[in-house]
From TrEMBL:
The lineage of its organism: Eukaryota, Metazoa, Chordata, Craniata, Vertebrata. InterPro entries: CBS_dom, CBS_dom_sf, Cl-channel_core, Cl_channel-4, ClC. This is Chloride channel protein. It comes from the Eukaryota. Residues 610-674, 707-765 form the CBS domain. One of its GO terms (cellular component) is Golgi apparatus. Belongs to the chloride channel (TC 2.A.49) family. The chain crosses the membrane at residues 78-102, 163-185, 205-225, 237-253, 265-289, 342-366, 378-395, 451-471, 478-497, 525-550. It holds the Pfam family Voltage_CLC. It comes from Sparus aurata (Gilthead sea bream). Signal peptide: none annotated. The gene is CLCN4. It is a multi-pass membrane protein. One of its GO terms (molecular function) is antiporter activity. Its main location: membrane.
Length: 770
């Protein structure tokens, strides 16, 4: 739809342009701030587009005058790529720093490195000469807190002390995170993706992408992830990258003065964010296209590709995981998958869809409760309570104690000959002489059964706790917890299938592909498919999800199982409700977001939706040559509309154009300061030339230049289906309703959204902003 969208947009802009001769002389800006927007308002895409075309035309005509102007025009053309380069460098660096800090602080909850306290557990034992292969996690330089304080590493006392300090550190980290968010940057909480979707659709939330938000979000993200809460850093990294994009937009007037152009940069920044979050540059571009962007012209596609590339390259040179990979979860499987395995893969897809539905419903219900009850007034207490419960329940189970990324990494892993994890405790055949990488299926040992119990408990724990964690007043992503739920379920299914294949290899389903002594089932692959299914169920991504998953794990030959699971989970989840988690949060917050994917099938007309309705007061309009400055000021004071239609006279009501409230206010204020003779009784003229007035009359005020002479109009009999489409594809703020040239009423974006909510039997008053 993006291609068609950009096409319609440019076609209409071209039409608007020609229709009005010169739509806006905004470039010789007569006074500052004209054409800007207020907070919590929607931008006018058409106006932004035509302003940019105007600016471009001016630069092109000037570039023929002198060498200096030519250089300036070349710099202007290159500025987009420069911004992308800067976004990639900064977001890659921030992601690397966040990864390193999270690694160190997560390990700090358990112990400390004596040789250099800034080393994480893994780095500490890399430098040690005394590690053995079996106990590669144990080295004298790394000491747990109990051992450091009491000298005893084992025993009940040491366990209790370690437990207590683990909970204490977790509480400290989360308390710091929530306090910083609360005091310095309230916008730094949550995942940020619902708001970014809304901003990219043309809404203005000032400060959401500001410098403070960037700084606080980066710091608190490290604290929140390290506290061991069930949240990820992926969603917030998209927000962080968009803050970087906004920061660099302010350096170039081409972007800082044009909200439409700025959104193109932010779309590309979102791609860079996913690129560093998952080490998946192509997945990032597709994510921006499929999930967050509203208007995505081809130029933005190439630029996001470049930004994602630079960001991934920067992260790779920092090498935060020390494995020369961009991600923690890189896996290499040695066995192909078989057709019969599609059945468990599709079942995992069904599980993912059901979990997605359950999670969205429960989480939205809890967030609504937080909004409407006393709970919302105590964000710090809520975070501390949830952290306390999480830490107390997580510590006894080794699978929930470690960071979620490490857990996923272990679940994805294939059991090689060198694995020391409990999940790989199989009973080996003593007379086995085979190459190391191709180990046949073996019966599970006691370690595996023990691990299965712990994983089952971890699964229940993760499912429940994530519902309460997502949406608290700290930075919290959803990708990693959803993937963890899916990976745990997948690994359990994988081990079950593997054991069935081993013990019943003469069954008809296993006979064809699973001979005794062959390595036929890879449980790690099931974990990967489960992770994709659950993430798809929650976010409803399909294409970008599959690409992210195989870039993330390097599992190229497993695209078909991943696609099967992703599509199944989307179908199952869509059967219960069309909205993904981000759309549901947008609805919950009442943002004016017109989803491109929503179908509008009701048979209503523009006249049913337009205001004024039957019993309303008449429409507030201005006349072209009989309104005084005082009348205009009174109108602005008495109403809160975003703009006013201009008509020939109140009797004829023939439409001439539309003028924005903010531009009117600024124009009058400016005229009173700078233009002599403009008083309250001066007449405002929207005509081409003001008539010659007698000398005794006050000086008239000419405001033709702020009048939009080609406002978008529809007739009163236009089907709402078409109106909704126009609003969606052209990003309109408002549209005037006429009948044979006479003005009847106005439809704003808010009216459209409220009408759609009403048609779906939802509360139309839930849409709060303009």
């Amino acid at each position: 739809h993006c291609g068609s969208q950009s096409l319609t947009l440019s076609a209409v802009c071209f039409w608007t342009f020609n229709a009005s001769g010169n739509l806006m002389d905004f470039l010789d800006e007569p006074f500052p701030d004209v054409g800007t927007y207020e907070d919590f308002h929607t931008i006018d895409w058409l106006r932004e587009k035509s302003r940019d075309t105007d600016r471009h035309r001016k630069i092109t005509s000037k570039s023929k005058e002198s060498i200096w102007e030519l250089i300036k025009s070349l710099l202007d053309a290159w500025s987009g790529w420069v911004v992308m380069l800067l976004i990639g460098l900064l977001s890659g660096t921030l992601a690397g720093v966040i990864d390193l800090a999270v690694d160190w602080m997560t390990d700090l909850k358990e112990g400390v490195c004596l040789s250099a306290f800034w080393y994480s557990h893994e780095q500490c034992c890399w430098t040690s000469n005394e590690t053995t292969f079996d106990d590669r996690d144990k080295c004298p330089q790394w000491q747990k807190w109990a051992e450091l304080m009491t000298g005893h590493a084992e025993g009940g006392g040491a366990y209790v002390l370690n437990y207590f300090l683990y909970v204490l550190w977790a509480l400290l980290f989360s308390f710091l995170a929530v306090s910083l968010v609360r005091v310095f940057a309230p916008y730094a909480c949550g995942s940020g993706i619902p708001e970014i979707k809304t901003i990219l659709s043309g809404f203005i939330i000032r400060g959401y992408l500001g410098k403070w938000t960037l700084l606080i979000k980066t710091v608190t993200l490290v604290l929140a992830v390290s506290s061991g809460l069930s949240l990820g850093k992926e969603g917030p990294l998209v927000h962080v990258a968009c803050c970087c994009g906004n920061l660099f937009c302010s350096l170039f007037s081409k972007y800082s003065k044009n909200e439409g152009k700025r959104r193109e940069v932010l779309s590309a920044a979102a791609a860079a964010g996913v690129s560093v979050a998952f080490g998946a540059p192509i997945g990032g571009v597709l994510f921006s296209l499929e999930e967050v962007s509203y208007y995505f012209p081809l130029k933005t596609l190439w630029r996001s590709f470049f930004a994602a590339l630079v960001a991934a390259f920067t992260l790779r040179s920092i090498n935060p995981f020390g494995n020369s990979r961009l991600v923690l979860f890189y896996v290499e499987y040695h066995t192909p998958w078989y057709m019969a395995e599609l059945v468990p893969f599709i079942l995992l897809g069904v599980f993912g869809g059901l979990w997605g539905t359950l999670f969205i419903r429960a989480n939205i219900a809890w967030c609504r409760r937080r909004k409407t009850t006393q709970l919302g007034k105590y964000p710090v207490l809520e975070v501390i309570a949830v952290t306390g419960i999480t830490a107390v329940l997580a510590y006894p189970n080794p699978y929930t104690r470690r960071s979620t990324s490490e857990l996923i990494s272990e679940l994805f892993n294939d059991c090689g000959a060198l694995e020391s994890s409990q999940l790989c405790d199989y009973i080996n055949n003593p007379n086995m002489s085979r190459p190391v990488d191709d180990i046949p299926d073996r019966p599970a040992g006691p370690g595996v059964y023990n691990a299965l119990w712990q994983l089952a408990l971890a699964l229940v724990f993760k499912i429940v706790i994530t519902i309460f964690t997502f949406g608290m007043k700290i930075p919290s992503g959803l990708f990693i917890p959803s993937m963890a739920v899916g990976a745990i379920a997948g690994r359990i299914v994988g081990i079950a299938v593997e054991q069935m294949a081993y013990h019943h290899h003469d069954w008809i389903i296993f006979k064809n592909w699973c001979r005794p002594g062959a390595d036929c089932v890879t449980p790690g692959l099931y974990a990967m498919v489960g992770a994709a299914a659950c993430l798809g169920g929650v976010t409803r991504m399909t294409v970008s999800l599959v690409v992210i998953m195989f870039e993330l794990t390097g599992g190229l030959e497993y695209i078909v199982p991943l696609m099967a699971a992703a599509v199944t989970s989307k179908w199952v989840a869509d059967a219960f409700g069309k909205e993904g988690i981000y759309e549901s949060h947008i609805q919950l917050n009442g943002y004016p977001y017109l989803d491109v994917r929503d179908e509008f099938t009701h048979r209503t007309l523009a006249t049913d939706v337009m205001r004024p309705r039957r019993n309303d007061p008449t429409l507030a309009v201005l006349t072209q040559d009989s309104t005084t400055v005082e009348d205009v000021e009174t109108l602005i004071k008495d109403t809160d509309y975003n703009g006013f239609p201009v008509v020939v006279s109140r009797e004829s009501e023939r439409l001439i154009g539309f003028v924005q409230r903010r531009d009117l206010t600024l124009a009058i204020k400016n005229a009173r300061q700078k233009q002599d003779g403009v008083v309250s009784s001066s007449v405002v003229y929207f005509t081409e030339d003001a008539p010659q007035l007698p000398a005794s009359n006050p000086q008239p005020l000419k405001l033709r230049r702020i009048l939009n002479l080609s406002p978008f109009t529809v007739t009163d009999h236009t089907p709402m289906e078409t109106v909704v489409d126009i609003f969606r594809k052209l990003g309109l703020r408002q549209c005037l309703v006429t009948r044979s040239g006479r003005l009847l009423g106005i439809i704003t974006k808010k009216d459209v959204l409220r009408h759609m909510a009403q048609m779906m039997n939802q509360d139309p008053e839930s849409i709060m902003f303009n």
